[in-house]
Design a protein that fits this description.
The protein is elongated. By secondary structure, it is α+β, with helices and mostly antiparallel strands. It contains three helices and two strands, in the order H-H-H-E-E. The protein has a two-stranded antiparallel ribbon. A hairpin with a 4-residue loop joins strand 1 (54-61) and strand 2. The protein has two domains: 1-38, no CATH class; 39-74, no CATH class.
Length: 74
Amino acid sequence: LMPKLLPLRFRYVTPWLGSLIARDREAYTYLPKSVENFLSATELDQAMRDSGLQNIRHKKLGLGTVAIHIGEKP
């Protein structure tokens, strides 16, 4: 349930809080829009494989909102 709620919070609550606290909604609206274009953890694994790295792995942190990727150069 949490991973499904986090994008909603990020898309709607963060800009609203930004407008309240910093008085700049637009500054807190661009980030959720840019994140929509990020690769998923699995897609980034594949991109790393496609670039020639080996032993690709990742670990998700922050309730699945962050992933640390590791790959080895052959």
